[in-house]
């Protein structure tokens, strides 16, 4: 699973835990200590709270993670989770507005005009005069609304009280909101987040929808790495909703209605799907008191249903070319099971063996010795709640081609199936994985992230405690078996970036 979490989207967030645990977290005694340090409680409405008290600095990090991501969308609302990540920064009935009583009728008027505009554009696309008039009406109403809107008031409040790192991210499996604050601002955070959960206002919906469209153009349609990743996921998956981009396709974003978005928000962004982690200078007694005070009255909401679609076994290699004016690149992905499969743990070690560090198999062979690649890496994608992919990324060194590089990679992968890793090498790989894990477990931010992430993806934060023992039981034969089963021609998807001059 760490292979997944060291992927493109998550690497920046996955640093963790305090130094007191780092020296011995890998031992059974340290795992037991971590189990003792994490204090948890749950409200009657289903809200789960995890607290780790750490009083060496007068700050704490808070993560609120909802087990709601793009995999939980359907054909009618793809892109809604990512859009809601944006919208939940817009404020509430008391935050983000100078006068909600005056703003509310403006919002309702904007919604009515927007609905008329969408209907005319869909049913009477040649009614240019009518469309122009409705757009003018909408623009005038939006200008009136701006007079009573307070931009970024959540950010302003937190900044005034010493908050740093106020942010959010949406993935296939979850959505997280995070911040670090001085220790004496815990009640402030709890009260603001309870207000945001219960009283969010989807103000400036249509302008923010346009912002997301621009984000998609910038990050996916004009960026080679985004184009390749999107092509990889949509090619490797045929049935499972993992195949759709978190941000949604252009037509998805354009057609997201405010009514659909509000329904998704009120149904699922609720206590029953939420886990909070508070790590740092926090008093668990006060935390429990304030969480009860501010969150207990919020309705539980609807438990997010599991995805029932199952990706069929891949029966043959799939290939796609992406043409763009950029240096050639190569992505090769293999379907694999997710946690708690033993093979998922095996791929964490295989990833280390293949690409982590100058002595790793692929780096040493392709970059240092043969010198046909400038870089090679591996990661898991696109999520962790359901079966996913093991991805190899490589860039050829001029004048070598992606075809040469691809064949060289396959030649090296075959060694995993025929050459048994010796005990010393396996021990070295485990130590390197352990060292990476310790870096992840060093900060308040990282621990809070991983506690909530695993509670959503694995069903319990205790996955962190059990992980080392599970990895320690893997043998060289386990790694070879996983490679033989999953690293096959029929199970792979290949994406090639072909340089095309404008």
Features:
Cytochrome Bc1 Complex, Chain A, domain 1; 20 helices; 48% helix; disordered N terminus
Head-to-tail CA distance between termini: 40 Å
Class of secondary structure makeup: alpha+beta
Task: Round the mean pLDDT to the nearest integer and report it.
Answer: 92
The unreliable regions are: 1-27
Briefly note the CATH topology name of the largest domain: Cytochrome Bc1 Complex, Chain A, domain 1
Give the helix proportion (percent range).
Answer: 40-55%
- Proportion of residues in β-strands: 15-25%
Q: Output the CATH homologous superfamily of the largest domain.
A: Metalloenzyme, LuxS/M16 peptidase-like
> Helical region count?
20
Placed side by side, the strands forming the largest sheet appear as 1-2-6-3-5-4
Give the C-level CATH assignment of the largest domain.
Answer: Alpha Beta
- Count of domains: 2
| CATH structural architecture of the largest domain | 2-Layer Sandwich
Major β-sheet, in short?
6 strands, mixed
Query: Cα-atom Rg, whole angstroms?
Result: 24 Å
Count of individual beta strands? 11
Shape: globular
Set out the fold topology.
Layout: H1 2-5, H2 19-22, H3 28-37, E1 38-42, E2 48-53, E3 59-66, H4 80-87, H5 100-123, H6 128-146, H7 153-160, E4 164-170, E5 175-182, H8 186-199, H9 205-221, H10 224-236, H11 250-255, H12 258-268, E6 274-280, H13 284-295, E7 318-324, E8 329-336, H14 342-355, H15 361-369, E9 373-381, E10 388-396, H16 402-418, H17 423-440, H18 444-457, H19 463-472, H20 476-486, E11 492-499
Parallel strand pairs: 2-6, 7-11
Antiparallel strand pairs: 1-2, 3-5, 3-6, 4-5, 8-10, 8-11, 9-10
């Amino acid at each position: 699973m760490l292979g997944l979490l060291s992927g493109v989207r998550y690497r920046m967030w996955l640093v963790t835990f305090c130094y007191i645990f780092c020296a011995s977290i890998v031992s059974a005694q340290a795992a037991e200590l971590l189990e003792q340090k994490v204090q948890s409680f749950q409200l009657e409405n289903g809200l789960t709270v995890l607290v780790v008290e750490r009083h060496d600095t007068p700050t704490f990090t808070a993560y609120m993670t909802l087990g709601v991501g793009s995999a939980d969308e359907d054909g009618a609302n793809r892109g809604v989770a990512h859009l809601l990540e944006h919208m939940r920064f817009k404020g509430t009935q008391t935050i983000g507005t100078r006068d909600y009583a005056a703003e509310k009728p403006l919002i309702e008027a904007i919604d009515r005009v927007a609905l008329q505009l969408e209907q005319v554009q869909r049913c009477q696309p040649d009614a240019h005069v009518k469309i122009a008039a409705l757009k003018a009406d909408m623009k005038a109403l939006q200008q009136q609304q701006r007079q009573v809107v307070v931009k970024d008031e959540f950010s302003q409040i937190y900044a005034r009280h010493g908050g740093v790192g106020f942010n959010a991210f949406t993935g296939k499996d979850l959505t997280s909101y995070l911040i670090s604050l001085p220790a004496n601002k815990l009640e402030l955070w709890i009260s603001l987040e309870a207000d945001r959960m219960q009283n969010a206002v989807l103000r400036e919906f249509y302008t923010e929808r346009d912002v997301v469209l621009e984000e998609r153009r910038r990050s996916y349609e004009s960026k080679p790495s985004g184009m390749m990743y999107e092509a990889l996921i949509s090619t490797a998956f045929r049935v499972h909703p993992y195949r759709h981009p978190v941000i949604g396709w252009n037509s998805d974003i354009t057609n997201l209605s405010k009514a659909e978005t509000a329904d998704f928000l009120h149904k699922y962004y609720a206590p029953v799907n939420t886990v909070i982690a508070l790590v740092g200078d926090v008093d668990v007694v006060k935390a429990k008191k304030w969480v009860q005070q501010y969150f207990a009255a919020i309705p539980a909401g609807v438990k997010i249903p599991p995805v029932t679609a199952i990706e069929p076994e891949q029966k043959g290699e799939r290939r796609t070319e992406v043409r763009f004016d950029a240096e050639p690149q190569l992505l090769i992905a293999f379907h694999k099971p997710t946690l708690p499969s033993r093979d998922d743990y095996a791929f964490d070690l295989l990833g280390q063996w293949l690409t982590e560090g100058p002595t790793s198999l692929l780096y040493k062979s392709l970059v240092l010795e043969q010198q046909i690649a400038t870089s090679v890496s591996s990661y898991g994608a696109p999520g962790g709640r359901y079966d996913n992919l093991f991805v190899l990324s490589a860039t050829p060194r001029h004048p070598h081609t992606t075809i040469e590089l691809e064949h060289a990679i396959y030649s090296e992968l075959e060694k995993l199936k025929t050459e048994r890793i010796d005990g010393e090498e396996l021990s070295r790989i485990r130590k390197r994985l352990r060292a990476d894990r310790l870096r992840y477990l060093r900060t308040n931010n990282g621990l809070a992230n991983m506690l909530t992430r695993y509670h959503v993806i694995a069903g319990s934060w205790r996955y962190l405690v059990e992980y080392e023992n599970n990895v320690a039981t893997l043998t060289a034969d386990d790694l070879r078996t996983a490679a033989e089963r999953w690293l096959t021609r029929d199970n792979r998807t290949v994406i090639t970036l072909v340089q095309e001059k404008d």
